[in-house]
Here is the input.
Amino acid sequence: MNNEEVCEQNRLKYFPIMMYSIIMGMGGLTIMYQKAGHLLGVPHIIGTILMYVTTALFFVVTFIYLAKFFKYREVVKKEFSHPVRINFFAAVSISMLMLAIIYKEHYLVISECFWYPAAVLHFYLTMRTISFWINNNQELAHSNPAWFIPVVGNVLVPVAGVGFANQGILMFFFSIGMFFWVTLFAILLNRIIFHHQMAEKFMPTMFILIAPPAVGFIAYYKMYGAIDHFSMFLFNLALFFTILVAFMYKNFVKIKFFISWWAFVFPLAAMAIASMLMYHKTADLMLYYLSYTMVSVTTMVIGVVIYNTIVNIGYGNICVEE
Here is the structure.
């Protein structure tokens, strides 16, 4: 076996579960442009192209990770028991839920094929993650906004689930996500303010703070179709966290590239979608400008993230042992 073959095998061995964050980012971008096509007059072809690109990326990442599972099963088991990486396994089911959302208005059957297994898988991963937290002593230093992924990800289930399941089931998932958002946010705020700063590679996950209220607003709107006090509360919190991370931009502009950079994209896309839905219901001119701003910013950010991802793949900085 030559050195090149050894290198390729090592790349497979260290292929991280966090690669699914790419699908989350691309999925958010796709849904954003689909909504922009309907609500802002952006060409529909952009959303359509992104739909197929995101789907292809999902199957490529899944194929590679399955190859890793069959070849390096013990490594995957270790990853599934890691205090930080376990949270990213829910990115698999979230990616499937996002594909269900993407296809719902185009191919309902395909959407169903993604939604049902994704809802079941995500519920299992929620139970597995919470059980892991309870059965193992967690260090405060391990806490970061990525903890939101497995439990707050439940809020995504009703976004695509309207019409696939009854209101009681959808509200069950929504309730879990909202409860753990509040609970985990209190823990993270304590960690961020009173303890050591997060490691540099986790700094992009600060953007995930935008996602729970933004996706919560979208899910609530999908289930009830109304803009009431609770939905306004969620939207305003999402807007606050968006302004907060913008205010802290100096924290992000000089950090080294990590695959966690993809955490920038999904929350921004969620805020853009929430802004468009709010504009659609209220016709507020400020929300119209906010929608265009969020779409533009998200597009620029993902352009930077994609460029740096490709460059670092070329330099062999991804899929290496930490």
The domain at 3-314 is CATH 1.50.10.150 (Glycosyltransferase).
